[in-house]
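Input:
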Amino acid sequence: MTITSNRHAAYSMENVIDKKTRRSYKRQRFSAGWSLFYKNMVGKIGLYLLILFGAMALASYIPPLVDPMYHPMTGVDPLISYASPPSWRHWLGTDNIGRDIFSQLLTGARVAFLVGVSAAFISIVLGTLIGMIAGYGGRIADSLLMRFADMIMVMPSLLVILLLSVLFGQLSIWIIVILIALFRWPAVARVIRSQTLTLKKRPFVDMARVAGASHIRIIFRHILPNVLPMALLYMTFRVTSAIIVEAALAFLGFGDPNTVSWGMMLQWVWKTGHMFQAPYWLLPPGICISLITLSFYMMGRAMEEVLDPRLRKIQKADYAAS
Amino acid sequence: MKVFFLFSDFYRKTIAASFLLALCFVLASCSNGEKDGAILRIGMIEEPRTLNIWLASDANSRKVISLIYQPLYTYDPDTLDLAPWLAQSMPEYDPETISYTVQLRPAKWSDGTEVTAHDVVFTVDLIKDFQVPRYYSQWQFVKKTVAIDEKTVRFYLAEPRAIFLTRTLVNYIVPKSQWAPIAEKAKTMANPLIALMNARVEKPLGSGPYVLAQWREGAFLHLVKNDHFFGSGIEISNRKLGPHADAILFKIYGTADVGVLALKKDTIDFFWWSIQPGYIEDLEKDENTKVYLSDRSALYYMGFNVRKPPFSDPAFRRAANTVIDKNFIIERVLQGYAARMDSIVPSENLFWYEEHLPRYGQGLSRDDRIKKAHRLLSENGYTWETAPVNRSGEVVTPSRILLPDGRPMDDFTILTPPADYDPARATCGVIIQEWLKDLGIPASARPMSFGALLQRIKDRHDFDTFILGYGQLALDPDYLRSFFHSANNRPGGWNMSGYSNPEFDRLADESVQAMDPRIRQELIRKMQQVVMEDVPYIPLYNPAAIEAVGEKRFTGWEQMIDGIGNIWSICRVKSTEADM
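Output:
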């Protein structure tokens, strides 16, 4: 009895150590990656911008609490009923019905995150799953799934979404998110599939198979962790495209009328005839759309460098030379 | 060296030649510029769909058509009474035979042939034979049209009709010589009406001030002065007619932005489109442009589908009307460039407008409106778990409203045109949704493309509520009957709400036959009272027409109801360069 319990203890001890080393290894890898990322100027700027927009999104809850007139959608200044330039009362001025542009801009950040991150997340989940299944399954599954991906990939997504909204009337913001996600997974699936193809020939997968692991276990336990960084990298690029598609839709008048997004703000300034009269209304949402997409793109570029050592070569050669 | 000289000589010649050529171009463009002085350049937001008068229903086609085809009578810009146009004088009425006799002016078609009574007879018969949708309802009670002589025509009516003068006689007359062969051919087809409406008329023959010279699709329309125009040099309604411009060039701009920019850059002389108030300040600053604000005969309103509960309950509709702050919509959404509407007939239409109507919610604060609407609803059996007004009389956020049968009200939509088409109506939808939520009424605004919207509302009756508008209401309020008579409550009919009230039907039927304007006025005013008591439509606003012109090259625009884009303006604007 005692022997077995001792053996148990020893085993669990080993397990703990193993877990600890594994965790410390992970931490090490992360901090190595992080320092690489942080050394990268592009990544750093992207990160700071993103933090700024995050802060804006969080701050969007504050103005309506200060005064109901700062509610981005329904609050109007009782004294101002026209587009007014920036003032102490309204830092970025008001729109034509007297709503505060600054609080709209803050809410726009929240909507951009919501649309960007959720659409990107859904498309990444879809893309990764389909990519892994196609790559691992091979043959018919591979051909079928990849041809399907090709079909979706060549569809002009903005046009199709525009058509759908014309057919079914205005789409809600969540439907728009799902539609964007449904059109944006194939590129991810292709990359993940190619990764899976190289991974499945690796010895550790063979060993898992020999040890009797099921296909599902191999896919999720052994392949997924190895393709995950790539998937996350692609997620940053998907966020960019999702935000741009939503902004374009809203600008063209097919956005969700109950949501204050930056594209919607641009549409209001355009359609009410203030395009050339109210730069304080036109510029902020335009600049914000550019900057938030830029920040995600920059982060993506820096992450790419962390994940793909080949991109780092030149820098290393520089070090060697010096 | 010699070679070099030869070469340089060659060069010199080439340079001289190209210089001459360039000079020629400059001179040519200058002379073009001088010629341009007589061309009136008009900007349009969209290209006309067709110049077939029977098919044309969009505003831009009608604008071009109004310069080519002419009616017997038109509206006087000052009094808005009938003014003889193709006709020589006012019609003579014979009560015994119920007939009107009209004498035509000496007038010619653009090919030089006379406009005769036979053309008028042909036009009326064609509309009745083919039952042309846009015109048939205005002519169907005309039993017979007879040409007494070349220039005299008599209309025999089946029964006295008040709208004959105000609505029927202002319709266009078409030339028999051009349309008779087309009509003959169309009659042999399986569907004559479709064939007639789809007939392509390359060069419409007209009697108006201008005729079509060229239509380059997707680019421009070029109209030239009609030398045979009957109005040239004569005086009608105290106005001496031209036209003074040699030609009109219609340029097409996809959006209002570009049109306004073209106006500022002096690329066009007039942008024939009502623009958003946002542009006014900028255009007024520019010394070369001038903004005209004109009253309109228009109705923008929120309609209910009274075929289904709870919208079938007048009390519910009255409460909704109470909670809507029309002044807010006018002051903010329309920037003050609109008039408040409390009846279906615009208040500017003094003769027909009824003043003594219920003013739901007017002059009340937001809290008072909610309290009044709450009272109205609770008196009629509506309840809440948390009412919009609590026991101590304060306005609070309510729970969802419970209908008189105790069920919570289902979510419903307010259909509006998209912001792209009309930002004001789309914004109204969202704002009204918030006001209704103050009463626990679960509304959500849903903009949809205009075609689909109209189909759902007018043809399929598949809707809850909507916001729509009539941009050009006739001056004669016969539309009241079209909108609310129960006979028009059918798919495709104008009674889109499905309103049905026997008393209203009786008043409407009487009003059609009342030939005495005073009696008809009284009936029309009573009809307004009935409708506004039941509010199947909540009238919201009547926007002003905001139009802009460039003053550099042309002056003398005629302002009347619906703006300066009218036949009087086109016949009277003068080039400023011609004066110099």
